[in-house]
Design a protein that fits this description.
heterotrimer, A mainly alpha (about 120), B alpha/beta (about 240), C mainly alpha (about 290), A: mainly alpha, Arc Repressor Mutant, subunit A, 2 domains, two-stranded antiparallel sheet, C: mainly alpha, about 85% helix, membrane (chain C), transmembrane (chain C), transmembrane helix (chain C), nucleotide-binding (chain B)
Chain lengths: ~120, ~240, ~290
């Protein structure tokens, strides 16, 4: 996974998004250690303070925890990871639906289109 | 140790009748990476030279760690000028000896490690190295100190993207976390994501000093874009 | 810190001068046995008269080695001067200045280290020159003759009796050594101060340094002359000199020598102080590396 940072939003918020993505997609497995701030910062080419801020945000959301002995780990709370994952999925769906509506489709038509889409893909 | 790392009040530097810095007031804290941004001739190098004691202010005060520039501040500042400052007959090991002799915060094993990562042997002479390698050697020495303040004057000016990445990575992975890094540049897009704060200099005045996050949040654009807008005219 | 500064100064100056020292010694040894020495003591004359072929060749070598000897000797003194100037100019006022003036040391330590090391190396150059002449004398006159000459009891008796007349000779020697040191340092700091003054200019700094050097020289020779004229015209000094004239021989001479040495030391020390503090102030307050 590469770190993609854009110009329009604060970097730390973008880092939060990308770290969350890595956690829900299992790149950083539940219960496993998160790389150090320095390592992450250097990998992403960002300021360690910014990375620290992003990790602190994840900590306050409960996605990562600081263990006295093991350092920083990804939460073992599977249900939390699942719910965040769903939240993200819903957000993606919202975006998708919004763009489809902009094309003039009704929700019903969108569902039909999605059902038919698998076959379409095979045709291509 | 609670006071700010850098405090400038009414700092002014004139060269003859020309004013290079005009009543600068600013403070910079510890553990920050700060960009000193501005077009050529905006006073970046003058400010850095004042901080490391290579110039004396015309008026106003400047303090690092609560001390005016002098022996105490020089022992906690690690300075990378925009040029080679070693005699070229010296060998890589002469350079580490030199730094180890004069700077108590110098970490020789760290420097040797960085040298070997660059493929440099202790007995290699500077004379035989390419310009790019010499610059990397100098950076490795500077970053091998556990300094309070790293002053890097145009560290990425005129280097190719690979060298730029090496330089930024070296800075990020090696600086002392309780220390502050201040680097001057006019190539902002390249370094924006490593900065905590940006100081915009124009004609010797600070026109903006804020955190990069604040700038992005308030302006909805990158520091680089803001820079282009501020300096679009009259620079 | 001062010691470390000196260490690096010796290292960078020695790099250039030590090879030249070795060359001077090597060529004087060569000359002692092949060139001037053999020309004078005729060591090879017998050999050469027996030669019909190669005789011209041998004398050519002798001539060449004589030329090489003087060449190297001149090169050594010129190079010493150049290196001393360069170590200050390039080492403090050009790119290397960025390194030296950001070290955690005071400017006066930098300036003192330069001066002390330059002085020691100038002395070393003079010593090497003397040593080379001595080697040449050894080669020319033969070791045994030189040895008997310098161990000749008559010579030492003469020296002893001369010294006995001047009871204060250890003090005189001491004053003389101090004078050599102070006046040597004055020469060095005269150059340093000129370069510091030249550094104040925004451009043509080398030329401005040369002009400053000449201006300072003229100023001090003017002051020198002025002091002489004033001293010569002050009545109390005139009567003092008349008093010395009437003193018994050696007593008068030794008093004059003491006065000359001490006067010169004081005069040189004043100059040295002006040059040193002038340089220190400029490099502390007005430093502006390009």
């Amino acid at each position: 996974m590469i770190w993609k940072l854009t110009d329009d939003r604060p970097i730390w918020i973008q880092l939060v998004d990308q770290l969350t993505l890595r956690i829900v997609s299992g790149v950083y497995a539940s219960g496993a250690a998160v790389p150090t701030v320095r390592a992450l910062a250097s990998e992403a080419g960002v300021n360690p303070n910014t990375m620290q801020r992003a990790l602190a945000e994840l900590e306050s959301r409960g996605l990562v925890e600081t263990r006295r002995t093991a350092g920083r780990i990804v939460t073992e709370d599977q249900s939390l990871i699942q719910s965040v994952r769903e939240e993200l999925a819903f957000a993606r769906m919202d975006e998708f639906l919004a763009s489809m509506r902009a094309l003039g489709y009704t929700d019903k038509q969108i569902r039909e289109l999605l059902a038919a889409w698998d076959k379409k893909e095979e045709l291509v | 140790m609670n006071q700010e790392l850098i405090t400038a009040r009414g700092l002014t530097k004139n060269y003859g009748s020309k004013s290079a810095l005009d009543h600068i007031d600013l403070t910079v804290g510890r553990g920050r990476i700060v960009g000193l941004l501005g077009p050529n001739g905006s006073g970046k190098t003058t400010f850095i030279k004042l901080l490391c004691g290579l110039l004396q202010p015309t008026s106003g005060t400047l303090e690092v760690n609560g001390n005016a520039p002098g022996v105490e501040t020089k022992s906690v500042i690690s300075y990378l000028p925009d040029r080679m400052y070693f005699a070229d007959w010296m060998k890589a090991c002469d350079l580490t000896d030199f730094f180890a002799d004069f700077y108590v915060d110098f970490d020789r094993p760290k420097a040797m490690e960085m040298f070997s990562a660059l493929g440099i042997q202790p007995n290699d002479r500077l004379k035989t190295m390419s310009k790019g390698t010499k610059e990397k050697v100098q950076l490795a020495l500077i970053m091998s100190r556990k300094a309070q303040l790293y002053l890097l004057d145009e560290p990425i000016g005129g280097v190719d993207p690979a060298a730029r990445d090496f330089i930024l990575n070296t800075i990020l992975t090696n600086y002392n976390e309780n220390g502050t890094v201040m680097l001057s540049t006019h190539l902002i897009s390249d370094i924006e994501r490593v900065l905590d704060e940006a100081i915009f200099l124009q004609n010797g005045k600070v026109v903006r000093h804020d955190t990069v996050d604040n700038i992005r949040e308030q302006e909805g654009k990158s520091v680089d874009q803001l820079f282009r807008e501020i300096f679009a005219y009259g620079s | 810190m001062f010691g470390k500064l000196c260490k690096y100064e010796f290292k960078s100056i020695g790099r250039t001068l030590v090879p030249i020292y070795l060359a001077v010694i090597a060529i004087s040894i060569l000359n002692a046995f092949l060139g001037m020495g053999s020309l004078a003591n005729g060591y090879y004359n017998g050999l050469m008269s027996g030669l019909s072929f190669g005789r011209g060749f041998l004398s050519l070598i002798q001539t060449l080695s004589v030329i090489a000897y003087f060449g190297v000797l001149v090169a050594m003194s010129v190079l010493t001067l150049i290196v001393v100037i360069q170590r200050f100019y390039k080492g403090l006022l050009c790119d290397e200045g960025y390194l030296m003036f950001t070290l955690p040391v005071k400017p006066w330590q930098l300036i003192t280290a330069k001066g002390v090391v330059a002085f020691v190396m100038s002395m070393a150059s003079s010593l090497v020159a003397f040593a080379s002449i001595f080697i040449l004398v050894l080669g020319t006159a033969g070791t045994s003759r030189v040895f008997t000459a310098i161990t000749d009891p008559q010579l030492w008796n003469a020296i002893n009796s001369a010294l006995a007349h001047v009871s204060t000779w250890p003090l005189l020697m001491f004053e003389f050594i101090i004078l050599i040191i102070v006046s040597g340092l004055v020469q060095l700091y005269h150059m340093y101060f000129s370069m510091a003054l030249g550094h104040l200019a925004s451009k043509n700094r080398v030329m401005m340094s040369v002009i400053a050097f000449i201006a300072i020289s003229m100023l001090f020779s003017f002051i020198n002359g002025l002091v002489m004229i004033i001293l010569g015209n002050v009545p109390s000094f005139q009567s003092f000199f008349r008093m010395i004239d009437t003193m018994p021989d050696t007593q008068g001479i030794s008093l004059v020598m003491h006065l000359t040495f001490i006067g010169s030391v004081v005069y040189n020390a004043i100059q040295l102080a002006i040059f040193f503090f002038g340089t220190e102030r400029i490099l502390s307050k007005r430093l502006n590396l390009e």
